[in-house]
Specification:
With about 190 residues, the chain is α/β, with parallel strands linked by helices. The chain is built from 6 helices and 11 strands. Strand 3 and strand 4 form a beta hairpin. The mean pLDDT is about 95.
């Protein structure tokens, strides 16, 4: 049986941070499902860096269907979890169904990949206390407030938790996550 991976996201997620791991993990042979607050067509965004701006800019991105609503997810069916960034984590961290899913993955010590603003979700369930992580650099104070040791690096591995700063770090992030996955949940 092929191991299944869950991606949790919503509207305003960063397009590349959803679709790159989705496609890369499928290429590796995993079955990948996307869960959101509801089964619907999700609207992603594109964040980019432009001269003269103090922060990233945001433009409309791709649309993609959610396979499941958070309330339909059975965490025990999944070998690992991916948490993309963008603006989605800002509001998703308040979703009680998603918080149950996140807690289940941490309690079972299953592999979790998080990127950019995704660690706002894991911080919301107290999953970062005492852990080494990276995130979008502007989140350093948030990560420290969550009890994490913030590191400004392409990819940071702490046990089964793999984090990255943003989409320019995809290659390092997925390389490290796949190393963890191959050890904990190999494709069969």
């Amino acid at each position: 049986m092929t191991a299944k991976i869950l991606i949790v996201t919503g509207d305003a997620a960063e397009s590349l941070e959803v679709l790159y791991p989705y496609q890369r993990l499928r290429e590796e042979g995993y079955e990948v499902h996307i869960a959101a607050p509801a089964r619907k067509k999700l609207r992603f965004v594109v964040h980019d860096f432009e001269p003269g701006f103090d922060t990233y800019t945001e433009k409309p991105g791709y649309t993609w269907p959610a396979d499941l609503a958070f309330a339909e997810v059975e965490p025990g069916q999944y070998a690992a979890l991916v948490i993309p960034g963008g603006r989605a984590p800002e509001y998703l961290r308040n979703d009680p169904e998603l918080r149950k899913i996140l807690k289940s993955f941490f309690d079972a010590d299953k592999p979790i990949a998080q990127i950019c603003h995704g660690p706002l979700l894991t911080a919301a369930v107290d999953g970062l206390r005492g852990r080494r992580v990276t995130a979008y650099p502007a989140l350093e104070p948030d990560m420290q407030s969550a009890g994490a040791d913030f590191q400004d690096a392409e990819a940071v591995v702490d046990g089964t938790l793999v984090s990255a700063r943003a989409w320019p770090d995809h290659s390092a992030w997925m390389r490290e996550f796949l190393t963890v996955l191959r050890a904990k949940a190999p494709v069969t």
